Fold this sequence. Notes:
Blueprint: H1 2-20, E1 31-33, E2 42-45, H2 50-53, H3 57-71, E3 75-81, E4 84-89, H4 91-102, E5 117-121, H5 133-151, E6 155-162, H6 167-179, H7 185-188, H8 192-216, H9 221-227, H10 229-243, H11 246-270, E7 276-279, H12 280-297, E8 300-302, E9 308-311, E10 319-323, H13 331-346, E11 350-356, H14 360-372, E12 381-386, E13 389-390, H15 406-424, H16 432-452, E14 460-461, H17 464-467, H18 475-495, H19 511-521, H20 523-533, H21 536-556, H22 565-588
Parallel strand pairs: 5-6, 5-11, 6-7, 11-12, 13-14
Antiparallel strand pairs: 1-2, 2-4, 3-4, 8-9, 9-10
The structure holds one RNA strand of 74 nucleotides.
Amino acid sequence: MQQLEQDLKTALQTAARAVFGVEIPLASLALQPTRKEFAGSFTLVTFPLTKALGQGPEPIGRALGEWLQAHEPRVSGFNVVKGFLNLEIADAEWLKLFAQLQAQPAGAPVPTGGPQRVVVEYSSPNTNKPLHLGHLRNNFLGYSVAEILKATGATVTKANLVNDRGIHICKSMIAYQRFGQGETPASAGLKGDHLAGKYYVLFEKHYREEIRQLEAEGVTNEVAKKQAPLMAEAQQMLQAWEAGDEAVMALWHQMNGWVYEGFTETYATIGVDFDKFYYESGTYLLGKERVEEGLQKGVFFTKENGSVWVDLQAEGLDEKLLLRADGTSVYITQDLGTAELKYQDFGYDSSIYVIADEQNYHMQVLQATLAKLGKPYAAAIHHLSYGMVDLPSGKMKSREGTVVDADELVRDVVAAAKAATLEKGKTEGLSDAELEELYHLLGLGALKYYLLKVDPKKRMLFNPEESVALEGHTGPFIQYSYARIAAIRRKAAELGIAEAADFAALGALAPTERELVQELARYPAVVADAARNLSPAVVAQYAYDLAKAYNRFYAEVSIFQETDELKRSLRVALSARVGEQLKVTLGLLGIQVPERM
RNA sequence: GGUUGUGUAGCUCAAUUGGAUAGAGCAUCUGACUACGAAUCAGAAGGUUUAAGGUUCGACUCCUUACACGACCA
C-alpha cells in the first residue's frame, strides 16, 4: 500500500505541474485514509496548497481530481468536500494489491529502519513476593514490544533483571527463620513465591506490632521504625549476606530457589519468556566499578563524609547519590553496572527498560549519568514508561493487602472463559485436554488484550468484569473471528475451493471486500508505528479493526452461496488471508488463536 | 514547595501526531439466525474534549493561565 500511496503522490505532483505549472514537494502532499462516511480510499488535504497554487482549496481539489481521473488509471473517481479531495481507487488496483500481499506470508518481516540489536528488559521481579496485576501489565508489555520489534526484523533479546538481594529479601528470610518452623512449599501446599510472600507479610505484621509497642513506651515513630528488633535483625542479616555468611547464604539460596520455581510456573502459564536472566546479586558490585570510573574521569565527586555524587543540574536534574558514605550501593549503582554488562553481552543499539512511570526520574538520572561517563550506549537507552493499574476501589497497595494476585487472576479469567464456552456449547468433539487448552487460551486472550489495548503510558483502571468480557472490543472477539474463518477454511477445503487464484479477471468488488484489502495492506504501517512508539496498543487496535472489517464482510456477502466461482474463490482467499493476518497480529500481543471455540 | 504526567459520551478507551460532522466497546433502546459459527452484524440515543484566553485557513492535539487527580524529588 505504501507503493500505491507513493504512486498517488507522484501522480498528484504531476497533476499540479500540468494544471498549475507549479512544483509541489512530495512531502507536502500528505495523504490520509478517507473517512468512512465519504466515498473514496485516500484523501488529499488541499488547504496547505492554497498559497503555492494561488487558488482556493475547493478549485484545487476539483482540478487535481479531474486531471487524475483523466490521466491516472489507478484513480477511478473522486469527490471534493471543502478542502478535501477524496480519491476512489480502481478495483483492479485493489486486486493487484491483494495479489502482492498474497505473494508473501502474513508474518513476513517489516523493515522500518529502526534499531537492529535490541535488548528489552522486563518483568524484573523482587524475590520476596509473588507477581501481581501490575507485574502482568509489565510482562505483557515487555513481551509484546519485543515481539513487535522482532517483526521489524530486529534481533531482540528479552532480559529479566531479578532483584534477588536487599533488605526486602532479608525481611522474608528473618520472618521465615522466626516463624517458619521448617515449612516448605510442599508441606504448605503453596507455590514457592507465595510462600516467600507469606513471610514477607508476616514480617510487616509483626514489625508494625513492634513499632506500636515502642511507641506506647514513648519512642517516636521515626526512632521506633529503626529500633524495632525485627528491623534490626533484617539489617544485620543484610550485612551478613554481603559478608557471605554461610548460614544466611544457605537460607537465601533455599528461599530464592522456591521463588524461582514459582515464577517459572507463572511465566509458563502467562506465556512470557526470556533469553537472558540477570541477578542483582551478580551485578551490584559491577556498579561500584562504574562509580570508580566516574571518579577517575572527574565527572563524579566525593562529599566530606565520603559519599559519591554526580551533579546533573546542567541536565535539569539534581545532584544524585551514587554510593553511600559507608561504601554500600544504592539502586542506581547496580543499574550502572547492569547497563554496562548488557552492552558487553549484546552490543545493543537500543536498550529498552519496561518500568512503571513512578521511576521516570530515576531513569532520566541513569541515562544522564551514563552520558556523563561518556558511555556510547547512553543514548540508546529507552524507558518504556507505563502507567500504574488502578482498581475500582482505588490504588493497589501491597502493604494494605489490596493487590490483585497474578496467579489468582489468571485462574479467574480462565474459569470465566470456561463458563462462557460451556454456555455457548459449540465445542463438541474436543477432548478434555483440548478444552482445557481452549479455556486457557481464551481467558489469557481476554486478559492480555484488556491490559494491552490501552496506551502504555497512560494509567489505567482495572475492572474485573471487563477484563474477562468476551464480547465487544476484546481479545475473544478477535479470536472468535479467527475461529469463524477456520471453519470457513475447513468447509472450503471440503468443497475443494482453492484459497488462491488469479483474480485479475474480476470486475467490481463489494465495498466490504475493498475494505478488507485495505485493512490487510495497512499491516506494515501498523508495525512500524507500534515499533516506533513502543506501543502494543497500536497493534491491538489494528487487530480489532481487521476483525471488525471481516465480520462486516462476513455479514454482508455470502461465500458458499455465491454462484460466480471466481468471486467465491476470492472470498475464501480473503478469509484465509485475514485469518493468517489475525494470527500473526495477535501473536505480536502474545495472544494465541483457536481453531474452534 | 520544585519537577512531571493525566483530564475526551453515564463507564472504559480511541482519534492516522495540526485536518472533514471527535470515533469504538460496555450499559440502554430497536432490528437481523429455516442462510458459511448471533462470542456476530445493522441502527438509535449519548459530547461546550476540565475552564478561560492565544497561535491559524483549521486545535482534543501547539502556547499561556487556572482547577482537579496522580507520580517523583526533598
